[in-house]
Each structure stands twice: as C-alpha cells, then as structure tokens.
C-alpha cells in the first residue's frame, strides 16, 4: 500500500517537472524582441535575443549568420524569428529552458547507377529500386539508369525485376554514390513470389509491357514469333483482317500508331503482305504499348505508341541463337568486343520457301512461268562505354520484301515465230539507323542525344517484251513502267531526365525532323524513249519540345503533368499545336488504385490507303492546306486491383474524338501521278469509345491473361454516305482474347490462345437491278446494278480461332535446343476474310453473297537453338 503511494507521488513530480519545462519553452518562444530595423541579419537578431531576452543560443558553424531576415514590425516574437530562420536556412530548433538549440537540416545525397543483367550486361528497362521498409523509390529508364535522392542515413535498397532474383543492399549514405547493380536470372524449382511494382503503382494508365519470353511462348503463325501479333492479343487492340500484322488501337488506323525501333519510326511493319511483322524477336529486349494517357515526351500520332528496344549485345561472352521454320530461318550472334566496355549484336532472318517452290512453278503446259517471293531483315547494334559517364550506341535495321512473276509465251506456227515475255515485280522495305549518346551529367541529371534516319520505299515494275518474225518482217516491241513511292526522315532529338528528389521525376527535351515525301512517280518506256511523270518531292520540317513531371503529392496521390508543343512547315503552310497531358493515380488501399488521364495529340502525316490487308501500295503524304493535320483528344478512367503479386485486374473506360481524318474518294487509287492526290481525298471526323477488362496471372505454373473489349468506332465525311455517321471498317463490338502458358516442367511447356470477335462491318446492297444493254444481246450481255443504302451497313460472321503450341526443351553441352510444334486455327474455323457478290448469269434468280476465307488449320514445326 505504502509503495503504491510512493509511486504515485513520484509520477506526479515527474509530470510537474515536464510541465515546467513545457511552460518555460512556451515562455521563451512567446517572448518578444525589439530588432533595430525590419531587415536584419541573423547575427544581429541573435545579439538582441541574448541581450534583451537573456536567451542562450546553440548552433553550428554551418548556420549562415549573414543571411537577412525580413520582419513586418521591429517588435517580434521569438517564435516568429525561429520560423523565419527555418524558412531561410532549413534549420529547425529545440528549446530546453532558456536555451534554444538550432539543428541543421539533414544532408541529402544521391545514389545512382545502372541496373543490368549479371550474365549479359543488358539493361533492365523498368526494373524497380526502392527503400525499405517504406517502399519509396523509382524505376530504371529506357537505358537502365536510375537515381534516388535520400537523407544521409543508413539505407536499405531492394532491386527487383520480373524473372530475376531480388537483391537487397544495406549501407550508410554519406556522399553521392554510384551503385551499379546486376541481377541474376531466376532459375528455381518452385515458384517464389517476389515484390514488384505493378500497374497499381505507376501513374500512367493504358500502358502494357510484354517480355520477349512471353512473346516466344505464345502460339505462332507458321512457327514465326511476332511482336505485333502478340500485341493484338491485348484489350483495346485489334488486328484488322485475318493474318494481318497491323494494329487498330481504340478505333484508330494503322498510320496513327507511332512505332519506334530504338527510337526510330518504322513506317511499314509488314512482311508477306501483312501476315508477319518486320520485328525479329531474337533482336528485341523490351516491348511497350501505350494506348492512351500519353506522356508528354511522345507526339506525332493519335492512337498509340509501340516502343521496341533492341538488345545491346552480351558484354561477357559470345552467344548465339537461331531457328529453322517452315516460313523463315533466323540466326543471331552477340558478344563482347572488349569485355565490360563494348559489345555487338547482329541478327538476320530470311524466307527460304521460294527456293523450294520455284522449281515447281517454273514450267507450265503452254509456256514458262517463274514466280517467287522472299523477305529478309537484318538488325545490328554496337555500343561502346566511353567512360563511367558516357556511352555510345549505333543501331540499324534493314528489311525488304519482293515478289515477282515472269511469264514467257512462245509460238511457232507456219512461218511465224512469236515470243512474249511479261515480268512483274513488287518490292518494298524499310531502313532505320540511330546514333545515340547517353551521358550522366550529374547524379540526378541524365541525357540522351539521338540522331536518326528512317526510310520506307515501295516500287512496282511491269515490263513486256514482244517479238514477232515471219518471212516478210521482223518486229520487236518493248514496254516498261516503274512506279515508286518513298518517305525519308532525318531527325535529331535530345531527352533529359532530371530526378531532384523522390517526389519529382522530370523529363524534358526537344526534336527536329526533316521529312522528304515522294508520294508517287511513274517512269514508262514505249520503244526506246523513257518518260517520267509525277516525279516530285515535298519537303517538310517538323519540330517540337516537351516537359513533364511525375509528382508524388502524397503516399496515395501521384500526378503526371506535362505539355507537348509541336510545329510543322510544309511549302508555304505552317501549323503548330500545344498539347496538354495529365495523368492521376490515387491509392484507395494497398490493393486498389484509381486512375484518370487526358491527352491531346496532333499528327502531321497521312496514310492514303486503298485496302486493309497490308499491301505496301499505301502512300504517305504530308499535311497541307487541303489535308490539314489530324487531331485528337482522349480521356480515360479506370482502376487496378492487385490482391497479391500473382493476380492483377485492370478495368478502363475511354472516349476518343478525332478530326482531320483522310480517306480516298470513291474510285480513287494509289496511282497518283502528281499533286492532284489532294483532289482525290475526303477529310472528316471520327470518334470511338468503350471499356476494357484485363485480368493477368503473373506467377505460377499457369500464367497468362484474359482481355475483353466492348467498343464503338465511327467515321463521318461530308461527301461519303451523304454525310451520315457510319461504322469504321474495323469497328468490332465485342473482342475477347485468352492467352495461357503452362510450364509443365523444365523441359515442356504448352501455350494456347483463343480469340473471339464480333463481325466487322462491310457494305452490301439491299436491292439490285438488271437488264440487257445494246441491240445485240450477245455482244453486250447481261448487266447488274446494286443499291447500297449506307456504308458498312452489314456485319460479317463472328471471328474465333484457337492456336496451340507445344515446346520441348533440352539442355545440351553446347547450349539449349527446342522443338516447337503448333497448330494455327486448330479446329479449322472457316472465318470470313471478305464478302463478294456472285451474279446470276441468267438473271433468273437473286445474286448470292459469298464468304471468302483465308486460313484453315495450319500445322507448324520449328527448331530453335541457343549456345
């Protein structure tokens, strides 16, 4: 009992002492001091505080005593003086009785460096580095560089990347520190779930990244790994007609996609008339698709950005990989030129089917026919580390398709010798080149200076040679025409990353592009004379600048705010545009984030397209006074749900409005021989809107995703369909994609995709008229006419398809080999490619609508190897 009383008394005394200190502290802070004038140095103020208030001050040598403080009156409270000192110098304070202790601000230092693959030295684009236990951090940029500015203290960093073992490092940060981190690939017997930044955490929405491993595991058309077909399996992305490698993103056209290979625009992405893309997966490191909420650093297109980064080459040892398939074969070599200093990669791919088919098609019963087709592409990249702060890259791509038909007819009759040879060639291809200098200017400032060249060229050649000889005369006629179309770009761009703190990630830069358009020229020869028409070039200059800041407002709220300015000069016409960009992310909980975005875009080039099956006869032309720039604005809202690191659910809704869209007038073709192409087009508007669901499973033996899109896309042109709004030709109401990859064990995996899409719209007549023309029925025959009530008034049958791939791996002493067996369209669905009208030659019954299909079930087998 007595002990309890003593305890209570002791506690009361301690409380009274603490209250006394508190009262004295309040008393010191509330005292008022008279200063000589309204602007005084800290040294002068301290002299008055000691003399008038008998206040003891304690501070270090780092306090700037000559810093001037500004007062509203000459009689001020000590609390006001301390507040002004904190605002001017960052020094905080602690009061102990009559003593004021001024505490200097904690020093901040930067830890920065590159995140790379330990075995190859490849940059880990988008790898995460953050502090523990508060999980504050950043991601590596497109070159693997990161920067964190932290208080001088004991620091624990965690570095993670999908498919790699997480690495943790603990050290005391007492100066600016360069910390290059290498991660080891994760090869484990069981699945280990590791922490990783998800779509929930990033500010931007409508962005999807795909690894090369995912692409290689997906089923393939004829055994070929295809980046673009992988992207077609994502919600909001449609692939156009059967087999096409084009992208129609959220109601946009293929020309509205900014497709970058190492930062260089690629204008035609199709091989084999659209069935394959030009991107060789063996040479690719990283693929990113942005469908909306575009960061300010991107401009020039309306619908999407596809950013493809090439590998840099193994810096440690020589490696190679290749594949032999039914359509093409590939070979890639990479390795160090000087270990840890420079490396190279070169990758080539070519069809070889033409070499086997050509002998079969070469001879016919009535003459000789020689047909052939091939494509090839070559990727190469070189990089050199100049010093710890500078690195130089040189990358290049070249690809070409060519199809040819040569027919020879030769007759001997009586004394007549007749020979005719017809040759037809169609060829198209891209060349891209990029020279890039990466520089670490300061620990928080990173620059990338790039010079690029891009060219797309298409040409067709038709040549006829006729020879006739008889007893009276000999005649030789020769006709030739060559049609070409081309676009070239020379560009220079500067991009700067500035990361002053954990709450700001600033990007800014500028660019200039010199465009050279050659929409079409025709050279023809009759006899010995050549004549060229439509040979002209249009030169244009495009330029711009941007700035954006990814701001961490609070633990829950992040904002990306930016603006993109662009201008375009063509002939005597000038255009400019200011395009604001905004993206918001709010964490409702540790598992749910809500996002919104708004972006304006402007596009200064148009693609005049006749068909949608990937033919290279589409023409690139600049914006002019007639064909004004295309503009769009897009708003989107959505949320992301991450119950754990295994599953992720993304739901988004969007609306996009477009103006300045271009289409050929009815009956116009690509054979535009002069500037009159501007009289053969219509300009109009478009809109699209819809919702997307994307469910992903990222860990475990079973991985993959389910995507669903509900969307509407419309076009409206004043002189098409009487100015009424009509469905876009790739308006698809429902679109479903299921992709599943099952890792059976280390030696076997199974992958399948199932896609479903409601039918595309097309134009069909609702009435017909018929009758004979002319007096002589035999000469003029039966004639049909059709009445179309509106454009795209009918929808084709729904499209669905199952693709399956089974892969067998085996480790050899020299490396790894893999056999891949697949089925494209496994249950041989008769999907619509296009519809046609079958006329009744007797005129006694109605015409029929005939569906034409392209691919039945297609088996594939390929052999790949790595060493």
Automatic annotation (TrEMBL):
Topological relation to the membrane, as annotated: Multi-pass membrane protein
Compartment(s) of residence: Cell outer membrane
Family note: Belongs to the TonB-dependent receptor family.
Signal as UniProt keyword: yes
InterPro entries: Beta-barrel_TonB (IPR000531), Beta-barrel_TonB_sf (IPR036942), CarboxyPept-like_regulatory (IPR008969), Plug_dom (IPR012910), Plug_dom_sf (IPR037066), TonB-dep_rcpt-like (IPR039426)
Superkingdom per UniProt: Bacteria
Entry keywords, A to Z: Cell outer membrane, Membrane, Receptor, Signal, TonB box, Transmembrane, Transmembrane beta strand, Transport
TonB-dependent receptor plug domain segment(s): 223-301
Gene3D superfamilies, A to Z: Carboxypeptidase-like, regulatory domain (2.60.40.1120), TonB-dependent receptor, beta-barrel domain (2.40.170.20), TonB-dependent receptor, plug domain (2.170.130.10)
TonB-dependent receptor-like beta-barrel domain: residues covered: 371-825
Protein name, UniProt field: TonB-dependent receptor
């Amino acid at each position: 009992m007595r002990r309890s009383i003593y305890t209570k008394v002791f506690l009361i005394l301690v409380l009274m002492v603490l209250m006394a200190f508190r009262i004295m502290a309040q008393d010191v802070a509330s005292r008022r001091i008279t200063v000589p004038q309204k602007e005084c140095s800290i040294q002068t103020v301290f002299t008055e505080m000691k003399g008038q208030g008998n206040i003891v001050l304690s501070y270090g040598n780092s306090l700037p005593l000559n810093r001037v403080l500004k007062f509203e009156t000459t009689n001020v409270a000590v609390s006001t003086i301390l507040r002004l000192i904190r605002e001017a110098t960052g020094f905080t304070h602690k009061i102990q009785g009559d003593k004021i202790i001024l505490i200097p601000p904690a020093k901040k230092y930067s830890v920065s460096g590159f995140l790379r693959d330990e075995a190859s030295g490849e940059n880990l684009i988008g790898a995460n580095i953050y502090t523990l236990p508060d999980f504050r951090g950043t991601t590596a940029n497109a070159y693997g560089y990161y920067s964190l500015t932290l208080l001088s203290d004991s620091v624990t960093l965690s570095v993670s990347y999908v498919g790699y073992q997480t690495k943790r490092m603990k050290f005391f940060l007492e100066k600016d520190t360069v910390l290059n981190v290498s991660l080891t690939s994760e090869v484990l017997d069981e699945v280990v779930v590791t922490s990783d930044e998800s779509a929930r955490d990033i500010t931007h929405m409508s962005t999807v990244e795909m690894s090369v491993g995912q692409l290689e595991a997906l089923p393939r058309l004829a055994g070929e790994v295809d980046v673009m077909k992988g992207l077609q399996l994502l919600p909001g992305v449609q692939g156009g007609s059967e087999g096409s490698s084009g992208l129609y993103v959220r109601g946009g056209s293929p020309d509205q996609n900014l497709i970058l290979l190492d930062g260089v625009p690629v204008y035609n992405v199709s091989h084999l008339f659209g069935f394959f893309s030009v991107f060789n997966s063996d040479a690719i490191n990283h693929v990113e698709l942005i469908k909306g909420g575009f960061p300010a650093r991107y401009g020039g297109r309306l619908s999407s950005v596809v950013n493809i980064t090439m590998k840099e080459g193994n810096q440690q040892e020589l490696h190679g990989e290749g594949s032999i398939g039914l359509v093409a074969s590939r070979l890639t070599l990479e390795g160090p030129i000087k270990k840890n200093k420079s490396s190279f990669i070169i990758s080539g791919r070519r069809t070889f089917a033409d070499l086997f088919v050509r002998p079969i098609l070469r001879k016919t019963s009535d003459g000789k026919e020689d047909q052939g087709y091939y494509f090839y592409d070559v990727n190469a990249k070189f990089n050199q580390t100049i010093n710890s702060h500078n690195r130089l890259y040189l990358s290049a791509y070249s690809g070409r398709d060519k199809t040819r038909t040569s027919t020879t007819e030769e007759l001997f009759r009586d004394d007549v010798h007749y020979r005719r040879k017809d040759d037809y060639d169609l060829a198209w291809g891209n060349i891209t080149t990029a020279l890039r200098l990466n520089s670490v200017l300061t620990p928080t400032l990173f620059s990338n200076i790039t010079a690029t060249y891009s060219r797309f060229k298409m040409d067709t050649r038709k040549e006829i040679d006729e020879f006739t000889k008889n007893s009276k005369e000999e005649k030789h006629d020769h006709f030739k025409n060559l049609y070409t179309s081309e676009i070239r770009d020379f560009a220079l761009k500067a991009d700067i990353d500035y990361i002053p703190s954990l709450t700001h990630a600033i990007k800014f830069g500028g660019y200039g592009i010199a465009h050279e358009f050659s929409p079409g020229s025709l050279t023809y020869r009759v006899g010995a004379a050549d004549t060229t028409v439509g040979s002209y070039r249009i030169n244009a200059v495009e330029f711009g600048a941007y700035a954006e800041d990814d701001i961490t407002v609070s633990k829950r709220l992040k904002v990306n705010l930016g603006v993109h300015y662009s201008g375009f000069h063509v002939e005597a016409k000038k255009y400019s545009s200011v395009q604001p960009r905004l993206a918001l992310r709010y964490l409702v909980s540790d598992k749910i984030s809500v996002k919104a975005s708004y972006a304006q875009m402007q596009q200064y080039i148009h693609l005049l397209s006749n068909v949608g099956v990937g033919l290279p006869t589409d023409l690139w032309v600049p914006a002019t006074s007639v064909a004004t720039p295309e503009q769009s604005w897009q708003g989107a809202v959505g949320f992301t749900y991450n119950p754990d690191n295994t599953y992720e659910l993304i739901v988004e809704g969007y609306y996009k409005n477009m103006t300045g869209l271009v289409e050929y007038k009815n009956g116009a073709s690509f054979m535009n021989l002069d500037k009159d192409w501007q009289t053969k087009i219509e300009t109009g508007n478009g809109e699209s809107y819809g919702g997307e669901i994307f469910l992903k499973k990222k860990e475990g033996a079973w991985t993959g995703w389910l995507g669903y899109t509900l969307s509407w896309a419309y076009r409206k042109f004043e002189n098409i369909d009487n100015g009424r709004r009509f469905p876009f030709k790739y308006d698809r109401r429902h679109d479903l994609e299921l992709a599943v990859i099952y890792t059976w064990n280390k030696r076997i995996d199974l992958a399948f995709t199932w896609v479903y899409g409601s039918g595309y719209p097309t134009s069909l007549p609702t009435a017909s008229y018929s009758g004979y023309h002319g007096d002589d029925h035999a000469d003029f025959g039966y004639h049909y006419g059709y009445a179309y009530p509106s454009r795209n008034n009918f929808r084709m049958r729904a499209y669905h398809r199952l693709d399956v791939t089974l892969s067998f791996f085996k480790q050899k002493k020299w490396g790894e080999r893999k056999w891949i067996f697949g089925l494209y369209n496994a249950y041989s669905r008769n999907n619509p490619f296009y519809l046609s009208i079958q006329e009744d030659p007797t005129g006694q019954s109605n015409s029929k609508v005939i569906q034409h299909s392209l691919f039945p079930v297609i088996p594939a087998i390929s052999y790949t190897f790595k060493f």
